[in-house]
Amino acid sequence: MNGDTPVMEIRGVGEKTAKLFGKIGIATVGDLLAAYPRDFEIFGEPVKIEGAAAGEVCAVYAAVCGIPNEKRVRNLSILNVNITDGSGNLLLTFFNMPFLKKTLRQGGYYIFRGLVQHRGAVKLMEQPKIFSVEEYRSQENQLIPRYALTKGLTNLTVRKCVRQALSFYNFEPEFYDEKMIRANGLLSRKEALEFIHFPADHDTLAQARKRLVFDEFFSFLFLLRKNKEFSEQLPNGYRLSETENVTCLLERLPFPLTDAQKKVWKEIRDDCESQYCMNRLIQGDVGSGKTILAVLALLLAAANGYQGAFMAPTEVLAVQHYETIREYAEKYGLIFRTQLLVGSMTGKAKREAYEKIESGEVNLVIGTHALIQEKVQYRSLALVVTDEQHRFGVRQRERLAEKGQAPHILVMSATPIPRTLAIILYGDLHISIVDELPANRLPIKNCVVGTAYRPKAYQFIAKEVEQGRQAYVICPQVEAEEGEQGDLENVVEYTEKLKSALPPKIRIAYLHGKMRPADKNRIMEEYGAHEIDVLVSTTVIEVGVNVPNATVMMVENAERFGLAQLHQLRGRVGRGIHQSYCIFVSSNEKKETMERLQILNRSNDGFFIASEDLKLRGPGELFGIRQSGDFAFRIGDIYTDAALLKQASEAVDMLLQEDPKLERPEHGYLRQHLVRAAANGVDFRTI
Ligand code: ADP
Ligand code: MG
User: What span, in angstroms and rounded, lies between the C-alpha atoms of 176 and 479?
Assistant: First the structure.
């Protein structure tokens, strides 16, 4: 068995299971082994009922009191039974498991493991797992992997398949030389793959993770350096100089540029006139005003008679930019002839767009990835701006260069990372930082609350809406996955609940990732036009959406999010002149959880927030938690693994010094490995 062997060849995997694997992107044994666990379940020491906190998954050793009581509601059987361990009582509820009436003997002792909840004064667990003491002890303190699943595929199946795959796998020879392994303290790749799935303890898990993260960073950085060599020497084919149309916009804008914006605008102009092509990153926290810089640069291209393209990671955002720029153009008499190009347009509309782009009838194209696909032929593309750059691939530039004379590249990102890391991760770009917010902003007021606060929060939202403002309510995901606790708020259901809780004249709509793009765009447009007051949404709105009239951001299940992500969400409000508010609702009122969320109160610095978050978590918790979806490494996380990122960067530098073309025999396997990585599109900045 090797990486390319189809999963069907694993014993026990038939067509049905293979299909289910296919649904989650696993076709080969290689894919399976690279589908690292989401997290690990640890059967900890049972606790006293008295000390079991709501929101926590734990085990209790307790006796059944009384005979289980069965209720029937339509087709559903609901079984209730009380248990006690002397320190307190707990109510257990089981759905559709009537047979437990016989199994759970009155007075019998068992270990019950599940999520502790409070309902009034009653502590309860729904659907806990039941163990005999021996059963439980045999698994106690082991790290049991939990995988991303799909309906019909169980964790046990995946676990068995991974075990088998590991035992029959023909591991590729070690690709680093002895020196690299020793200098960086790495496990072998084989050990790492075994231990990432089945670690003996936390320490082995950390070691395994280290090797895999190092590999990922190493390949990425190596290819990045190569990319840099390529793009650094591109001559400037489009000298762009400032014209009246551009200065005119600057004079007529309703606000003066901040000093930071002015500084960056100058850097952009200098690049565009220099000997080489521009290749620049604008980094600036949410709300720092990056869009206007993009508009100015695009206007510069148009004013010099060329075309520009403005690319956004989502259709929602692309459409928003399109509307904003059209408004600007109308208001200030800009010379833009704009064209939208997104995946959800009809074939006919797309063909018409292609024609206008090719003939030069339009000089500004705004859209998603669709902009740089093969079918699009530009007449004179001089500048490509990408918003939220980290969501795009690093080699996009090469692809663009193949379209003719290489255009100037300007990318924008709100990922809060310190300069030292930015230099590593964006080694192929020059960096400009917008380190100042517009002066008219009021700091956002935050609060962290439990679910009991909801009615008050709703009242607050109603009050803001009455005053003409708008609100967002964020829920973690659309439907609970199999095996997931059912406590996640579901966007669609939540919207219904909210409708009955708020006055009927308040207009409420929802948005989630599984909706058709055209519907998403429509909802966002209506929200932007203030035809909707409250938007219930998943994190699809996290990236870049700008509705300055929105003043309330309420996040449900806030404990489920990384703090950096919450910080991004918070950035959706406080974008205008009105006082804005953030309400983080945690359904887990454990002290540590609340303390973690309180960090958001203390700081507005995204990187500080992410690093504090990590300090508060235990090593077991770290696994699988991502601070944000930026830099889609498979396992590495730029925050958690910042030190390792630097280490990998130094290792790449050293290698490139010693053997830049990897010609030495001891680098033969590494060369093969990297060539394969490049061919498989190691493109970790991709979604
Ligand atoms: P981001 O950097 O997050 O992309 P945007 O470019 O969307 O931020 O800007 C956020 C809001 O701030 C927009 O409504 C924009 O019009 C406004 N804005 C931008 N620059 C300034 C400025 N210098 N003074 C006041 N408001 C500004
Ligand atoms: Mg933006």
Answer: 43
